[in-house]
Design brief:
Layout: H1 3-15, E1 19-22, H2 26-42, H3 47-61, H4 70-80, H5 91-106, E2 110-113, E3 119-128, E4 134-141, E5 147-155, H6 157-167, H7 172-191, E6 195-200, H8 203-211, H9 217-233, E7 236-241, H10 250-253, H11 269-284
Helix pairs in contact: 2-3, 2-5, 3-4, 4-5, 7-8, 7-9, 7-11, 8-9
């Protein structure tokens, strides 16, 4: 075919709303569902079988939109390469496999929309003081870097104490992750089918969001919720570190004013509180 024609077709494709989707075949899903069910019912997973399962899960995960399955792959790897090796399936691995089995049947296909060229930016932050007061904040910016909306939420001592009682440690990484999840929940409809750069200044939270899991259990649960929100809204996320002095979200997280954060662009308190409570209900509900 003439090069000019190829170039013309490619140009039209890039300007179109065409969406290409990739999904697992029905046979692949059926075979993997049967394999997962067998492991769950048997309650054991041998080393070689675990390697085979890990490979099949990795391939299937590649055809499903989002990062929600990453923690499942990590759970299987932790089982296979544990020293000393134990064949018994733990409660965490059993739940992870059941989660993946359900996701395999209901998860959205991995898709590419060539019309998605705009990128929005969200900066989030959280603070936690020694007197057990705290707050979270977020700022939504347009592709040109202009502030479109922002939110803040003050955390009362009883709420922070609840975190500390659950975690038995400093909860700042969890609160930083929570701020990002709240932002996703609030602006999901605005971010639908778009590239979004999430900027935060806590590496535990950022790496957890990138990998899809964390050594901190609470962060892993929040990351799982973040992945689900991204899948539902077809958000294509990128997680970037921003230096704290450059993070404008530091102001609303501390209930401070900033010239760029106009009152008329502030998200209503009841909307923010609803998103916050939604995240907490997900995290603290039974996951076994």
């Amino acid at each position: 075919m003439d090069m000019y024609i190829l170039t013309l077709l490619a140009s039209r494709f890039l300007r179109s709303n065409i969406r290409m989707s990739f999904k697992n075949t029905e046979k692949c899903k059926k075979d993997l569902v049967e394999l997962i069910t067998s492991v769950v019912n048997l309650g054991t997973l041998q080393y070689k079988e675990g390697q085979v399962l890990n490979g099949k899960l990795t391939f299937a995960h590649g055809q499903i939109f989002g990062l929600a399955g990453k923690y499942v792959l990590q759970a299987v790897s932790d089982h296979v390469y544990a020293k000393p090796f134990k064949s018994a399936v733990s409660d965490e691995l059993r739940y992870a496999l059941q989660f993946f089995r359900d996701r395999l049947l209901t998860g959205l296909p991995r898709s590419i929309n060539m019309a998605t060229r705009h990128t929005r930016f969200i900066l989030t932050d959280a603070c936690l003081e020694a007197n057990l007061t705290g707050g979270i904040g977020g700022v939504l910016c347009s592709p040109k870097g202009q502030v479109e909306a922002w939110f803040q939420l003050k955390l009362e001592p009883n709420q922070v104490e609840h975190f500390m009682a659950q975690l038995q440690e400093n909860a700042i990484a969890e609160l930083e992750t929570l701020a990002t999840v709240v932002a996703m929940k609030i602006w999901a409809s605005v971010l639908c089918s778009q590239h979004v750069v999430f900027c935060l200044d806590n590496d535990v939270a950022r790496f957890g969001l990138i990998k899809g899991y964390s050594k901190a259990p609470f962060v892993t649960l929040l990351v799982r919720l973040a992945s689900t929100l991204c899948e539902e809204a077809m958000i294509l996320p990128w997680f970037l570190r921003v230096a704290s002095p450059s993070n404008i979200a530091d102001f609303p997280s501390r209930l401070q004013r900033h010239p760029l954060l106009k009152t008329q662009k502030m998200i209503a308190h009841n909307v923010v509180l609803a998103a916050f409570q939604y995240a907490l209900e997900f995290v603290f509900r039974p996951h076994k």
